[in-house]
Amino acid sequence: MQIEKLIEDGSFPSCVLFSGSRYSGRMYTANKVADALGSTFESTVILSDRDNVTQINAALNLFEKNRNRAASQFLERTVKVYLKQFHGALMDSMSAANRKKFSDAGDCMDLLSELASLDEKDIPKWTDRMRKSLEKLYPLSKGQGVTVGKIRDIKKWCSEYSADGKTKTVIIEGLENAGDSSSNALLKILEEPPADTYFILVSQNPGRIGQTVLSRVRQFHFSDMSTEQKNSILSSLFVDPNAHEDLESFFITMSGADDELLHRSAREVSEGKDPQFPALVKELERTGMWTRFYSLLVRELRNRLESGELSERKCSYLLEEIENHTSKAASFNQVPRLTFDFVVFTALGVVR
Questions:
Q1: Range of the domain at 108
Q2: Same structural domain for residues 216 and 267?
Q3: pLDDT in tens, 120-162
Q4: Could you tell me if 30 and 104 lie in one domain?
Q5: Which of 13, 47, 165, 176 is the most buried (most CB within 10 A)?
């Protein structure tokens, strides 16, 4: 693999971009690269607009179900990725009230330290404690994303923090959804990267990142995960790979969401039929699976285009509208229900 070769040769760039679709392994690889470069948990910071709740709930439920070493390691890795977003380097940009939440992240780390030595009988009680501790953090991370205040915190941390000979790694996900002020602040850092510090940008839509930033990074594109790769990952977790069409389906189902309802509703909207609105909205508000529903709707629209049931003109229009509106909603932290209503009723109006 090219990335591994660059690390082995000591020529890994100080600023890179990992692009690709959801569940293509970008964030996982970013953290593995940080480890390989010599960064520790304490010297790695993550700025992200990702909703981690689904992945964390899935990991907790899998650990409760399987209670094996593979599930334990998967849970630890998943939670640590989230907790890197509560690094002390980011406290200055927080309000006094929110700074107190960082101690809750410390409580989660303390709980993780107990994971390896848990007796099987203690697992239900431990997972309940972990859930409650993490739930204190979710409101703080929701909608935060990549702010100019956090970028300034990172700049200060890079210049002042000593990692005792360890490299520092900053992983930034979702810059395409941030404002110009955030991009400009980051650009100033990337123009002269601090010594022994690596910046890894993670993006689903690199075309929406400013060219001045893109010109400062080396890009690596991640292809969609193959069936063989998906099967290998699930098998390593002692999960039946045939039970899930992709990793996203695994995470959603294991987290306790009704993925079948989302599939059925997306298909109905693509056919111009009213879905079961009360049940669908209730499930989306409970689980936060708005993005999942939109991705399923896009898939169904493309399937109808390929089968000749939907014209190319209508399909192209709807795909563009869905992309534009969901992207703007993410950028401006719009109320999810408003975006949902626009997407669904626009689709129904065009398809019918």
A1: 14-222
A2: no
A3: 999 999 999 999 999 999 887 665 679 999 999 999 998 887 7
A4: yes
A5: 47
How many other C-beta atoms are found inside a 10 Å radius of the C-beta of residue 125? Answer: 10
Alpha-carbon distances of 91 from 102, 111, 225, 231, 308, rounded to whole Å: 8, 22, 36, 40, 54
- Residue 338: is its pLDDT beyond 90? yes
Residue from 105, 194, 104, 181 nearest 150 by CA: 181
Q: Is residue 231 part of a domain?
A: no
Q: Is 15 in a helix, a strand, or coil?
A: strand
Q: Which residues contact 181 (CB under 8 A, 6 or more apart)?
A: 148
Kindly state the helix (H) or strand (E) to which residue 151 belongs, with its residue range: helix 148-160
Residues 33 and 136 placed together within one structural domain of the fold = yes
Tokens 């000979």 correspond to 165
Mean pLDDT for 283-290 is: 92
240 within domain boundaries: no
Q: Are residues 74 and 206 in the same domain?
A: yes
pTM listed for this prediction: 0.88
Q: Are residues 136 and 271 in the same domain?
A: no
Beta strands 15-20 and 44-48, pairing class: unpaired
Domain co-membership, 209 together with 294? no
Q: Which pLDDT score is estimated for 14? A: 96
**Does a structural domain hold residue 111?**
yes
Tens digits of per-residue pLDDT, 22-57?
A: 999 999 999 999 999 999 999 999 999 888 999 999
* 212 is a domain residue: yes
d(CA 172, CA 164): 23
What percent of the chain lies above the pLDDT cut of 90?
A: 82
> What is the predicted pLDDT for the residue at 100?
77
